[in-house]
Amino acid sequence: MWMSDKPRTQQQLARDLADLVDALRSKSNMMGFIGAFWQTMAREWGSIDGLRMDKYLYLVRCYVNKGFEKVAKDQWADQALLEVYSKIMVDVPLNARDIKIPNGLRYHVVDIYVDELDKVDVRRTAPLEIMLQPLRQLATDTPTKAMRKRVQEALDDERLNHWLGADDLNGEEADGAGQSANGGEEEFGGFDD
Question: Which pTM does this prediction carry?
Fold first, then answer.
């Protein structure tokens, strides 16, 4: 990964590295491999130079996605696997108190967490209480206001309302966004100051 040069090659390699998780048959080996990835990324994050950072950000994204994909298997039914994965996320990339975990890694995982969950859970069947627990624990345990704000922004993502069914649309909004009650198009009212 370090020497990979072109963007397409880097992205394919990142996906291939994340797909290594698929080769592991037992759940304990699979979760151990994912945990080792996060420990390695936390340990090496500070030595990644700016020119190489983009490919490692994408690699992290691929592993977050792959972790969600693995726990989503069988309709999120394996409670023990969900808890193990949640614990891995709390213990390493989203650990609020471990000074060995770089803030840059924490921020990136917080930023992509809901995005990758959204990609994996297209049916909106994920147990959000368990899946969002690592973010909530980070918000509770972090000593920094900036991290609490970033986590709150992630937790306030409108897509999470769709999962929870809190955005029950009324007939007008569901039938045609941008149309008024009389059936005509609404005029653009300008930007709010």
Answer: 0.83
